[in-house]
Amino acid sequence: MVPMAAEVWEAGRWHPDLLDGEWTVELLESLPDDGLRYELIDGTLLVSPAPSPLHQVVAANVFRLLDVSAPADRAVLFAPLAWRPDGRTSLEPDLLVIAKDRIATQRILGPPDLIVEILSPSSGRFDRTVKFSRYAEGGAAHYWIVDPEVPSVEIYDLHENGYVLVADGAHDDTVCVTAPFAVSVTPSRLVRI
Fold first, then answer.
1. Between the chain's N and C termini, which has fewer beta carbons within 10 Å?
2. CB 25 within 8 A of CB 43
3. Entry pTM
4. Is 106 helix (H, G, I), strand (E, B) or coil?
């Protein structure tokens, strides 16, 4: 039997010896709202710090870019918002684009059309490896990785065997894509306040 989060979280301290088995989405939902980002990968709990101001500037700029380009039947959403492809995985992409008819009151139904992750020192390796493979396994058709430090963008499309890099650019390069809808992105503009 898996204990409730209240049993593993006491006075601001984790008690990992109280955990019996894997983390689940249900257990994740009972964690405190303390400003940290909690995600699950195949039953393993991951905790990340709050994002930096630069990260949030880039997230806001990517949101505006996608929101003005998205067709009327698509929504652009941003973290914190969990996408749960199964009962043992709960991911919070920085941004996602999804058909409006796949948005329920309490959750996302089915895979997003596009997921965007903005790299930070604490998440870069994870975004490029673990999340990369889990988003592909979950059926997210397109995946962007934005690196604010360069600045750069890598754009991947899902094919039979996983993600394939279809476009990339850095600094003042303008990268144009047509899927999931037509949009052009210039990495240097994404870091502007």
1. N
2. no
3. 0.83
4. coil
